[in-house]
Design brief:
Strand order of the largest sheet: 1-2-3-4
Shape: globular
Largest sheet: 4 strands, antiparallel
Structural class: alpha+beta
Length: 193
């Protein structure tokens, strides 16, 4: 595993390997952990943005061998070494492979239903007291009033949303206020599966 700060050379490596084709947000990370075979990137996990949002991507032909867990553990350890108070993630609850996050200590804070196809659990991994304060603050979105406020903020600030959370994907979820509020779902402490 190699830990690197993201620069134009790393972005070129990500593109050559094809790893950032599926998840372009990796390219917007401040730094990342790389897994390589014969100098080709086969997996990457990055951290960036105002909320220290994490991204992880593994080449399809490599998935299922435990590389995701190794990348996550290394990213968590490096975040702690770098003095982060917390890191956050967005997990599709339908993606059963990503449920291992909870075994590593991630906690679900709230769930947002952008559409029937795009549902995200916002998660956090805290390292200290300040991280726990951020977790408590973000917990205000785990009720109908908080989610209504978040939906409005997402609608108003759609153009800067990617910069705030390190989201560099082709399609930015549209914040449909009615849909988000109508489909609000309070999230409980996520069971370890």
């Amino acid at each position: 595993m190699r830990i690197v700060n993201v620069d134009s050379e790393i972005i070129k490596e990500l593109r050559r390997s094809g790893i950032s084709k599926e998840m372009r947000s990796l390219e917007s990370s401040d730094w990342m952990v790389l897994a390589e075979i014969d100098k080709k990137i086969i997996g990457a996990s990055g951290v960036g943005g105002l909320f220290n949002l994490t991204s992880i991507q593994i080449l399809k032909e490599i998935k299922g061998i435990g590389l995701g867990g190794l990348l996550q553990r290394e990213m968590i350890n490096e975040s702690k070494k770098r003095g982060y108070s917390f890191i956050t993630g967005m997990i599709d609850p339908a993606n059963k492979q990503s449920m291992f996050h909870y075994k590593l200590g991630w906690e679900a804070i709230f769930r947002i239903h952008f559409s029937s196809e795009i549902i995200q659990d916002v998660t956090i991994f805290t390292f200290n007291r300040r991280g726990k304060i951020v977790k408590s603050f973000l917990g205000i979105f785990n009720n109908i009033l908080g989610m209504s406020i978040l939906a409005c903020l997402l609608k108003i600030f759609k153009s800067i949303f990617p910069l705030i959370i390190n989201y560099n994907e082709k399609i930015i979820p549209d914040a449909n206020l009615t849909y988000i509020i109508k489909n609000f779902e309070k999230i409980q402490n996520h069971p370890i599966t």
